[in-house]
Amino acid sequence: MATLALQxxxxxxxxxxxxxxLDLELASGxxxxxxxxxxxGKTTALRIVAGFEVATSGxxxxxxxxxxxxPANKRDMGMVFQAYSLFPNxxxxxxxxxxxxxxxxxxxARAAKVAELLELVGLASAAGRYPYQLSGGQQxxxxxxxxxxxxxxxLLLDEPLSALDxxxxxxxxxxxxxxxxxxxxxxxxxxxxxxxxxxxxxRVAVMSQGRLEQVGTxxxxxxxxxxxxxxxxxxxxxxxxxRVVDPAAGIVEHRGRRLETAEPLSLTxxxxxxxxxxxxxxxxxxxxxxxxxxxxGGRVVGTSFLGAVTRLWVDLxxxxxxxxxxxxxxxxxxxxxxxxxLSIRPGAGRVxxxxxxxxxxxxxxxxx
Amino acid sequence: MSAASATTAASAELATARLRPRRARAPLGEGRARVxxxxxxxxxxxxxxxxxxxxxxxSLEGEHGSYTISAYTQILSSSAFSSAFLLxxxxxxxxxxxxxxxxxxxxxxxxxxxxxxxxVMEALSFGPFVVSPVVLAVGVENVFRKAPSWxxxxxNILVVLYVVLSFPFxxxxxxxxxxxxxxxxxxxxxRSLGAGWALTLWRVILPNLRTAIISGALLAxxxxxxxxxxxxxxxxNTFGVYIETVGxxxxxxxxxxxxxxxxLTWLAMGGLVLVLGRAGGGKGSxxxxxxxxxxx
Lengths: 368, 296
Known about the structure:
heterodimer, A: CATH 2.40.50.100, 2 domains, 6-stranded mixed beta sheet, 8 helices, 20 strands, 33% strand, B: mainly alpha, MetI-like fold
């Protein structure tokens, strides 16, 4: 399988800059997700790779070969689209066979390949059905089989699950990952769904305003966000205003309470900054009977049941509200109005040198 | 009966009533609706059938209140009739072929790549309604004055004019058809699988425009078969001109001819639907989806 390289891609639509110098390399057989909000340029990048858009500047290379000026139909890339894209006048099998017919493969070879791929996506029994006779999930499976039938050097997936309901989405994303691993095909996956990106990717490339904010493994992106944008976009994060006490030891102070951060700080002692803490790293406990608390004191103002965990919304007393997760089995004790003490798991807080945001102190939104 | 069993029976009745909600009055309502539909359809049918029946009765009238089919036998045995009909049939087929070849790729490309030109195309499609056929015929004759005689001196010139007359109908039908499919995604899907532009148009777009093409082609066919003004001005004896000539010379013959042309045109249209329908491809076309009410 081939490597894919995006080098200094710029794309402007009139006065709007959609891509502002995108550099990204995919190793052979790797699945990389382009993750970002709507309008961040991720789909534009994918369409440039596919050959459907022309970059204002920059190059695209596949296995070391420059394909920037190669037409889309000569690029040898399979693509699955966000919208249902099966040809309505062809059956599932004929759709899968389409690319093979274009390549003038022998009839027997085509039939064998179609059967193999329909089997791979678990829809061998649907070979004779037309797209309108298939569910959305089935259509996307057939679209995946069709894209794979031509044995592309690179597979491009443009939010292929966004039109599907939640359960089908989870099943199909696992299916996509299984097939990708089985075939070892280099894959660029575009999504705005962080859970989707984190769950199936070898690496995640977080984009904002046409630029890459961070590229890393899902764990790296989640645990060690490189920028405030990544911290906010990937998962939920609380921001606490803190003062640096001991930069070398990574010790900060919040309301007179010393907190340990994940790593040494590049700030000077006494500097004010933001400590980023995930809700699952904030551990709530019931405050003492006298209202005193061994931790950051606050009062529960709301709860959100999320399944295995329940999210508590805790008012720290000055109008600042933070999110803290507690196991749902133990959540009954934390009803609205309960006084709680929040402690931070050692090393779970993270300070970003570049964090200049005025948002204080919580990113998470309190539900209405 | 104990209180407990009475309660159980009442519960069962309530449950049964819940299982058949709103069914009691439904047959009456449905029956009325069916009668209303039938009455309405009957009235509409009469609107079309009465003139046809009257024409048929008149076409069969002979001398002194007798009935005869001589008007029909005379027309059908006339070489002028067959030559005029075959000429118009040929022109209709050529018009449809040329119009489809010109308009389908244009409408597709405008939809795909030049959406800003859509208002221009719409304005152009009003042209044949704004410019009268007389002006069109005179204008074309002047423009093509120096054209080779095989073109200017033969009915072939009519094909060019009929394509112009058919353009609004075919373009609007195609535009509606193109709106019904995701042209961009289908095109990109075909391109990503290695198809060039021609193959994409032929194998992916065209089959999914089958219904639109048939609609536009039928309208074009009807226009050509009945067109009189341009053919008459340019001195060609098409079917429309022949009908007019017979109408001026034989009253019952004109009525018979009207019915014959009606039947032949419908037969030809049926043939057209069959041919284009088969050429259009599989059962999964958008038209088929619409027929079965898929609303995904």
